[in-house]
Design brief:
The protein is an alpha/beta fold and about 210 residues long. It contains nine helices and eight strands. The chain has a six-stranded parallel sheet with strand order 3-2-1-6-7-8, sandwiched between helices. Strands 4-5 form a two-stranded antiparallel sheet. It is globular, with a radius of gyration of 16 Å. Bound molecules: adenosine-5'-triphosphate.
Length: about 210
Amino acid sequence: MVPKSHPRYSSLKIRDRIVAGVKKGITSEHGLLAHGRGEAFDYMIGEKTNAKAKQQIKKAAILLKKANHPVISVNGNVAALVPKQLVQLSKAIPAPLEVNIFHPSKAREKAIAKHLKKHGAREVLLPNTGKIKYIESNRRFCNKEGQAKADVIFVPLEDGDRCEALIKMKKKVITIDLNEKSRTAKKATITIVDNVIRAMPLLIKELKN
Ligand code: ATP
């Protein structure tokens, strides 16, 4: 047990969530590495939401509210870190939640959907015959009523290839990524450089306003 007085208490508790996600079959082992990269960037920005991120959150809320068919894309890391907030966001916009993971696993897709439902989601879309053009990874499969039709896609922790493909398909992409130099951060329509743990509650608050 980590004592609350530990200087890295909150960072260690977040790690616990990711590790629990792997144990529950929600997060991939590779997700641990992606999390480590995020942690390093978070350390560098002082583990605080900066003024620029707050501005981007406001812009993201406006774009999500104006969208005709917004969709929230969920991977194994965000499902483990912020399941309750994903459901709250889905209700606040409103927009469906859709599972989209990089490392192919039908079992993990189902586990993520089950986890989101446990946190209050009514419906969770899974990839079916919908396709994202221009990419070859497992993430090209999507739901034909979800991301295939979407005009605005909110994808916390996106991978660069898919972000680029979605933009080429003339969709607007909102991402949260601690690495401002990632391809995703550079390509997305709106990039929020912050930890999903901090940015998600702020985005929900903004939408409710
Ligand atoms: P690129 O966009 O350049 O293709 P990548 O796909 O190689 O990047 P991944 O290995 O998928 O990047 O890593 C995921 C990204 O998510 C990293 O840039 C990392 O900084 C970021 N990240 C990890 N955890 C968090 C978090 N909790 N909040 C926000 N961003 C995070």
